[in-house]
C-alpha cells in the first residue's frame, strides 16, 4: 500500500478480510509474520500506530448514551489528537448528519450510525483509514455520497 492510495480487500464471506483488519489494528494477533503501518511493526508499536490510524469496523461500536459529538471528541482524544470543533462539524456536514450532532447515538438510524462510525475513523486527521463495509445498511444515495466523501478525503489529505 502506498500513501494517498485507496486499497480494497475483496473476498467472499469468511475469506479473512475482517480478520486482517483485526490483526492490523491490534485487536487480534497473527499466528505468524508481521505487518507494518507507517513503518511501525503492528506487534510492537500499537500506541504509535493508533495515533495515525482510523478504523470503521464492520459492526458499529457506539455508546448509546453518548451524543454524536461526544463520540467524535472521545475517539479523537483516544488517538492522542487535539480536539477541533470545526473539524468535527465539517465532517458531519460532509456526511450529511450535521443535524444529529447533539443526538444520542442510540437514537440514530442504521445508516446514520454507519456514518458516525466513518466519522470516528476520519476524525483527528487519520493518515491510515481502514473501512470494513462502511456503507453497509445505507440507502443507495447515502452510499454514493459516502464513497464520494472517502475519495475526497483521500485527495485532500494526500
From TrEMBL:
Pfam families: ABC_tran (PF00005). Gene3D superfamilies: P-loop containing nucleotide triphosphate hydrolases. It comes from the Eukaryota. GO terms for cellular component: membrane. Residues 2-136 form the ABC transporter domain. GO terms for molecular function: ABC-type transporter activity; ATP binding; ATP hydrolysis activity; lipid transporter activity. SUPFAM superfamilies: P-loop containing nucleoside triphosphate hydrolases. PANTHER family: ABC TRANSPORTER DOMAIN-CONTAINING PROTEIN-RELATED (PTHR19229:SF250), ATP-BINDING CASSETTE TRANSPORTER SUBFAMILY A ABCA (PTHR19229). This is ABC transporter domain-containing protein.
Amino acid at each position: 500500500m502506498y500513501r494517498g492510495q485507496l486499497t480494497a480487500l475483496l473476498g467472499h464471506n469468511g475469506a479473512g478480510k475482517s480478520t486482517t483488519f483485526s490483526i492490523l489494528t491490534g485487536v487480534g494477533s497473527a499466528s505468524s509474520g508481521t505487518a507494518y503501518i507507517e513503518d511501525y511493526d503492528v506487534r510492537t508499536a500499537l500506541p504509535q500506530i493508533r495515533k495515525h490510524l482510523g478504523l470503521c469496523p464492520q459492526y458499529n461500536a457506539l455508546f448509546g448514551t453518548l451524543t454524536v459529538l461526544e463520540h467524535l471528541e472521545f475517539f479523537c482524544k483516544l488517538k492522542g489528537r487535539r480536539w477541533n470543533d470545526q473539524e468535527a462539524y465539517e465532517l458531519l456536514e460532509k456526511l450529511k448528519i450535521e443535524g444529529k450532532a447533539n443526538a444520542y447515538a442510540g437514537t440514530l438510524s442504521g445508516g446514520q450510525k454507519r456514518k458516525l462510525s466513518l466519522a470516528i475513523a476520519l476524525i483527528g486527521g487519520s493518515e491510515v483509514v481502514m473501512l470494513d463495509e462502511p456503507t453497509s445498511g445505507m440507502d443507495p444515495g447515502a452510499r454514493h455520497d459516502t464513497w464520494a466523501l472517502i475519495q475526497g478525503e483521500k485527495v485532500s489529505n494526500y
